[in-house]
Amino acid sequence: MLVLASASPRRKELLSLLVKEFEVLPADIDETPNHQEKAEEYVVRMAIEKAKAASLKYQRQADVNTSAIFIASDTSVVVDGCILGKPASLEDSRSMLRLLSGRSHQVITSLCLCNLEHEHVATKCVTSDVLFREISDVEIDQYWKTNEPKDKAGSYGIQGLGSVFVRSISGSYSAVVGLPLYETAQLLTQFGIHSLEEMSHE
């Protein structure tokens, strides 16, 4: 029994490539970075807190499966050590995309799996380098009108129209989208879930 602690349709779609059946149970947590918290530490902490919050929410349900496993992920776009969250406005989006324009940045995606009682907690952190071409202000405004950047870290989605800005990527494409498939499959095996076996069964 696997529970995805995320409302992200992208993470749901990616996880469905590895596991046929799972529940979706998003958990609301405070996503404010701590003072001087490093990006890697922040994204791992977010994934752990999401997984644990989902497990506590799950325990309050009437029908509880004690063997449930919880999976959570967090993605941050990082430039010069600065974490770029989701844009709150067009002006926010402009400042983020101007910062990313014509240069390389990091996309750090964390992963956490834990059991119901939190005796087994496993984490991974994946860093990918993404190089953007130069982006004009007109393109930024046009991109904002598509609504795609509004719920994306760093104000772009690599799996959508935002891909037109990406010259190259070094690392894990699925991690940049929101769930690192290789690392997810590796961690799932630690909890007795084998992706190839799961997907090959009728």
UniProtKB/TrEMBL annotation:
Per the UniProt entry, the Enzyme Commission number(s) are 3.6.1.9
Active site positions: D74
Residues annotated as transmembrane: none
Pfam families in alphabetical order:
Maf
Q: What is its main location?
A: cytoplasm
Biological process per Gene Ontology, one example term: nucleotide metabolic process
Q: What class of enzyme is it?
A: hydrolase
Q: Is Manganese there in the keyword field?
A: no
NCBIfam families for this protein: maf
Q: What is this protein called?
A: dTTP/UTP pyrophosphatase
Q: Which organism is it from?
A: Marinomonas polaris DSM 16579
At the highest ranks, the source species' classification is: Bacteria, Pseudomonadati, Pseudomonadota, Gammaproteobacteria, Oceanospirillales
